[in-house]
Predict the 3D structure of the following.
Amino acid sequence: MDDERIIELFFERSEEAVKALNIKYGRVCYSLSYNIVGNAQDAEECVNDAYLGTWNAIPPARPNPMLAFVCKIVRNISLKRYEKNTAAKRNSHYDVALEELDDCLASSAAVEDKVTENELTGIIESFLDTLSKENRVIFMRRYWFSDSYSDIADRVGLSEKNVSVRLTRIRKELRKYLSEREVLL
């Protein structure tokens, strides 16, 4: 079923909308959540909560693309669950991915003093536009979807070592790009 039809089902307040959404994007949503929370039951609950969030947002929203809209909801809910679950401990998979970006951005408070969240988003989107499609996929799979190096390597047909080297180079380019725009402190 195409996204427009799924959105129409949401507007009709049909329960079929959630079923269709799950059939079309359930695996992506679950994988995204699991990569963040690291627990199958929590991931399933986060995805279900995201479906409820989608139900509450449509209408009035008419998202395009639907996948990005739903993934953003899943990611936000999963991050909240992750923070709750790891308040006093460390979850290596997700924390390691975020720590890789520590050299690119200073503390969030320091960045907020320089640029607003929307400005930073625009700058990072502009940076992503400078990357090849393959490098953009590698970057997004690691830092937005929290995929492991091996998952990314399988997805793009490279070795884990090559993925690691590319991510190192991309982070170096990102640091330079942010520094040139006086975002890096």
Summary: The mean pLDDT is 86. Residues 93-180 form a domain with the Arc Repressor Mutant, subunit A fold (CATH 1.10.10.10).
